[in-house]
Amino acid sequence: MSITHNVLIPLELPDPDPIPSVLVDTLASMEVVVLGHYGLPEQTPPSAGRNQFETKANTELDGLAQPLAEAGASVTTRLVFGKARDKTIDRVAVEEDCDVILTPGQAKTVERIVVPMRGAENLDRITSFVGELLSATDASVTLFHTSESSDRLPGEELLAAATDRLVETGVAPDRINQQLSEDEDVERSIVELGEDFDLLVLGETEPSLRDRIFGTVPAQVTADTEDPAFVVRDIDAPES
What we know:
nine-stranded mixed β-sheet; about 240 residues
């Protein structure tokens, strides 16, 4: 099954850090939406912010997106003024048909990718995206699973299934590693594991749209790590 990935990169304006150059190269073959969210004080209506800052903000946003376009990515920019950042990201992800959301973080190299696996749901989309990342780099990947009593698929079977699907996408088996954990603190174990890697790929964890994108595990992990983190949306899951 061929899956096309569209990556949303939310950036907080004004004066955000640029997207790390190694991520620009990694995303060169993908479709990318660069979202500039311009945060406003509580008492400032979005229309007033737009009237005052739109020209400068668009110039800044275009400058942030330019390296991606020069690298070969198909780039769209969106500028939003407001206060509700998470809701804005959710809405734009749906409007632009983005199935992956990137928190850029800090990165100097992409040599080791870790993919925490929670279950069989969304497995095709996660492995398809990881396959694209690996095709764009020389990185290795570690598929990680921490067992929970609610798991419907044993960890060994889940990691084996993910490995098989990556191999089907053309990834050499010697670039794929597997790691199982019995740690009950899922968020902590992923954050600690991420310290040994350059980049994380996580799947959505909750049934509602907002919680699926920024659910308990992805939100905690992306808040506690400086590594770039991709969250792969389960866009085929039914809305709750």
